[in-house]
Amino acid sequence: MLIHFHVNGKACAVDAAPDEKLLDTLREKLQITSVKRGCENGDCGACTVLLDGRPVASCIFLTVKARNHSIQTIEAFGEPGHLHPLQEKFRAHGAFQCGFCAPGVTLSAISLLNQNPTPTEEEVRRAISGNLCRCSGYVQIVEAIMDYVEERRAAREEL
Q1: Right CATH number for 2-76 from 3.10.50.40, 3.40.50.1010, 1.20.1250.20, 3.10.20.30?
Q2: Which of 12, 54, 111, 133 is paired with 46 by a 20 to 30 Å CA distance?
């Protein structure tokens, strides 16, 4: 069946089986490989994408349910040579070692920050709790997000 939706701001139409997972559609049909195949059970967060601004596990989300919705992958934020400011903070803090979880963690954090620009550390930890990082202890990840929050807060206070 033909499914229409937007991916990273562009209109898409794909032929998808009723039981096809969004992860498979994005990776195999749209060649968006930043969406990682991890557990395939919705437990690790490597496949996280934003559906209308909210994080979803694309490995368990059916493509047909994405009809007429907006999907964002990490490619929607920043570009080669010009990272999103949050990605710059992750880099500055050495937040990721292997990088496998980075797209999902980043999208979960961006979703939180779009809803709540001044979250507490506890809210940040809760927001990224669905993203498993096997390399870090999350310390640098949380520090980078909080640094980003503080920088934005200071910039607003200067106005």
Answers
A1: 3.10.20.30
A2: 12
